[in-house]
Amino acid sequence: MEDLTTSKLCLDVKKSLELFKRLEEAFNYKLTKKEQTFTTVIETVDKRMTQFNENKSTLRKELEDKAKSISHLEKELSLLKETNKSLELTDLKAKVDLAQKENKRLQTLLNEKQTLLEKKRTESLLKSSSSEEYKKKAEAELKAYAKYLQLEISTVEENHVKFSFRGISDTEPKKIVYFLLHVNGTDVFEVKTCQPELANLNQLISQLNRDRNLTAFIKRMRKEFVEVENN
Fold first, then answer.
1. Model's pTM, two decimal places?
2. Does residue 187 come out as left (phi exceeding 0), alpha (psi in the -120 to 50 range) or beta?
3. What is the side-by-side order of every strand in the sheet holding 151-157?
4. Are 176 and 163 in contact (CB under 8 A)?
């Protein structure tokens, strides 16, 4: 009787070890597949970032050329004003207006491409990592883009963060615009100060409190500042 009990116990242990081995193999297989998927996603994002940088360089070159063209046209306009050539002056004004519109169009296109790339990168990160990992990556991306966006982030006091932008105004590129963001005790975002004031600020804050996407909110605020300062 004792031998039968021992034999049954050994058999149960053997079955348990085999089951554990199968579970371990299944877990390792799933882990390997997940690592491969994550690597593929990162490679895709890196390729898109490279393409974006190439496009950005091309657009920046076009903007520089347009700026030179505008400067040249403005000099011609000044000369025509002095010599009172009214017909040529009218034609030149049209050229300047056209060049300025093209310059604005290229700048808008550059901003749209940047926004699109950030959106795709965010979607890829959401699919490939946990929410905590995404939060860390989003913070790193915000720091990386801060220099390009001429954005400065500073803590004024507890739960109060100031976001300052330069390069917003076409006529005063060194002018600083900013807003002061506050998170109250119930985790609700509020903007305490905004210079210049934005007509649709309440709608922007409501959207932030719905989607909790701070990076997108900062980009929307910058876009609104650009429109107010240049219209």
1. 0.41
2. left
3. 151-157, 160-165, 177-183, 189-195
4. no
Burial of 55 (0-12, 13-18, 19+ CB in 10 A): middle
For 21, 120, 197, the CA distances from 204, given in Å and listed in that order, are 54, 22, 13
How many C-beta neighbours within 10 Å does residue 28 have? 10
Contact 154, 148 (CB under 8 A): no
Q: Mind listing the pLDDT tens digit of every residue in the chain (231 residues)? A: 556 677 777 777 777 778 777 877 877 787 787 777 767 867 776 777 777 777 777 878 887 888 888 888 788 777 777 776 666 667 777 887 887 887 788 778 777 766 666 555 544 444 443 445 645 665 666 666 666 778 888 888 888 889 999 888 889 888 999 999 988 777 789 998 999 999 999 999 999 999 988 888 988 999 999 999 998
- Within 8 A by CB and 6+ apart from 70, the residues are 96, 99, 100, 103
Distances (CA, A) of 227 to 36, 84, 165, 183: 44, 35, 14, 26
| Rounded CA separation 162/178 (Å) | 7
Neighbours of 49 (CB within 10 A): 13
Structure tokens at 125: 């990160």
Whether 89 and 97 have beta carbons less than 8 Å apart is answered as: no
